[in-house]
Amino acid sequence: MKKVYGSAAEALDGLLFDGMFIAAGGFGLCGIPELLIDAINKAGTKDLTVASNNCGVDDFGLGILLADKQIKKMLSSYVGENAEFMRQFLSGELELEFNPQGTLAERMRAGGCGIPGFYTKTGVGTVIAEGKEHKDFNGETYIMEEGIFADLSIVKAWKADETGNLIFRKTARNFNPPAAMCGKVCVVEVEEIVPTGSLDPDAIHLPGIYVHRLIQGAHEKRIEQRTVRAA
Fold it and tell me: For 144-197, what is each residue's pLDDT tens digit?
């Protein structure tokens, strides 16, 4: 089965539709699928529900979808660094479902493993727990969280072979693996595609069985907060 495509637009062809649910990898601007996000922006797909740790910054990453009013709802654990996110949420233009960071990652991983729900202590006694099932185990109260099953996963990896086996580089191995797992279709952008069989099996972070489409591209790699010393 062909997995390697020539561009982000080609890799997303036939997959996008208004109102879809997308799981996106990355953390801040680290390891974000910027080429695929840009292609979704250009396609004009709207009324999106997006599960991602955060929503990029005002003019980059998922922030460009937000700025063009393509996102209807975010499932996130962090909403800082993006003034437009704050404005839309406070004005009622954007729905927001807050998730503790570990809970969001586990919801993605659970969906990828076919697990519809799990219990966690995180969020008990807070607004996170409102409306959720509570259950006691060994004298401790837990809440049930549902696994995430997305229509599409978009992720960024460092290197892949032609069958989609992935290696993530350092902290870019953040939300990318669980996000890749939970979509019905997973599209990945990488910096380098190598021949099948050339990757050390012990070095592979995510097996190609999760990956349906793959592109190679050049990435901007912006720094979210740049701090320098005085000369």
Answer: 999 999 999 999 999 999 999 999 999 999 999 999 999 999 999 999 999 999
Nearest of 226, 63, 122 to residue 132 by alpha carbon: 122
Beta strands in 174-212, from DSSP E residues, in sequence order? 183-194
- Going from the C-alpha of 201 to that of each of 1, 100, 165, 205, the distances in angstroms are 21, 33, 9, 9
Is residue 162 within 8 A of residue 193, CB to CB? The reply is yes
pLDDT digits (tens, 9 = 90+) for 69-83: 999 999 999 877 788
Residue spans of beta strands (DSSP E) within 48-203? 48-51, 71-76, 95-98, 117-120, 134-137, 140-146, 150-161, 166-167, 183-194
